[in-house]
Design brief:
With about 140 residues, the protein is of the alpha+beta class. It is built from four helices and four strands; from the N terminus they run E-E-H-H-E-E-H-H. It has a four-stranded mixed β-sheet with strand order 1-2-4-3, sandwiched between helices. It is globular. The two termini are about 15 Å apart.
């Protein structure tokens, strides 16, 4: 698993991102979910989701301005790209709701771009076709 701690400075928002976890990573991710105030029921649902293929999840605590994003294991580069884009979309939605950003406005799109740029160094490495020789 790869971990990333992303700060979105313009919004004072902290994001804990976990890429491609396996079963040994569940307890650590659950601890971070608990730390950001995720309800126990949601943590249990997230634990069930963590080991599914071609999926992910994003939990946000608007009051704490903190999110946890998990990008699960995928079967192809296209599925990886799709999962990242999907979960990034949820994060943009959460921050936009917390700050009352216009869903059709430029601020929301700049936020999406900032998140994409922040995630890029991690995603770039995972998009190497050689990382899929032994998947899943």
């Amino acid at each position: 698993m790869t971990e990333q701690h992303l700060i979105i400075e313009d919004y004072g928002w902290e994001v804990f991102i976990f890429y491609q976890p396996d079963k040994d990573d569940i307890d650590g991710i659950s601890s971070v979910l608990e730390m950001v105030g995720c309800p126990e029921e949601n943590i249990r649902k997230a634990e069930e989701n963590m080991l599914l293929v071609n999926t992910g999840f994003t939990y946000s605590n608007y009051t704490e301005r903190a999110s946890v994003m998990v990008i699960g294991r995928t079967t192809s580069l296209a599925e990886l790209w799709s999962t990242v884009d999907h979960e990034k979309g949820h994060l943009v939605q959460h921050i936009s709701e917390a700050f009352g950003l216009d869903e059709y406005g430029e601020a929301r799109e700049y936020l999406a771009g900032d998140i994409a740029c922040g995630m890029y160094p991690y995603i770039r490495v995972m998009l190497c076709p050689c990382s899929y020789k032994d998947r899943p």
